[in-house]
Amino acid sequence: MKYCSHCRALVSFIVPEGDNRQRYVCDECEFIFYENPRIIAGTIPIFEGQVLLCKRAIEPRLGYWTLPAGFMENGETTQQAALRETYEEAYATPQLGALFSVCNLSKGNQVHLYYLAEMTVAEYGSGPESLEVELYNEADIPWHDLAFGTVTETLKRYFEDRKQGLMQLHHMDF
Ligand code: ZN
After folding, report:
1. Which domain covers residue 14, as residue numbers?
2. Domain total in the chain
3. Residues with C-beta atoms within 5 A of ion ligand 1
4. Which of the four pLDDT bands, split at 50, 70 and 90, describes residue 127?
5. Is pTM, for the whole model, over 0.90?
6. CB count, 10 Å around CB of 91?
7. 156 has which bridge partners?
8. Distance CA 61, CA 78 (A)
9. pLDDT average, residue stretch 139-150
10. How far is ligand 1, taken at its centre, from the CA of residue 123, in Å?
11. What was the pLDDT predicted at 1?
């Protein structure tokens, strides 16, 4: 950030009075621009034991497979964001279940949340951000072509939990 979006003056990266972190502060109007992590919400959509994956049509990681997920919008709950992203990327409308994974990307300033989701029908398709959308059995998951570490770890833990017959909430740090 270089200029204040309120008055167009230059900003400085300084520790404001009474604060303990550097922030962008306008040299003129003294507005403080707080930057906080972004929330990405998504689902683990399951139909008859298979998981629905999307092949990304956009960067980053174009051509790699991911669970449907995306940036939460203002005015949404995390559950609404997860379901909206699942529809936008995979045209699927699963029943949302429990929160399954909380992934802290403290270096990337993001938090990724994945909810369990049960598909009652095998209805899905490729949204504008997906090249392909497919149901995968555990044995066929393209582990080497997954887009993000959070997706790989979430899927690994999902299948481990399923074998043990016990779904629990996973907190992971990346
Ligand atoms: Zn300003």
Report:
1. 1-35
2. 2
3. 4, 6-7, 9, 26, 28-29, 31
4. very high
5. yes
6. 15
7. none
8. 24
9. 97
10. 50
11. 87
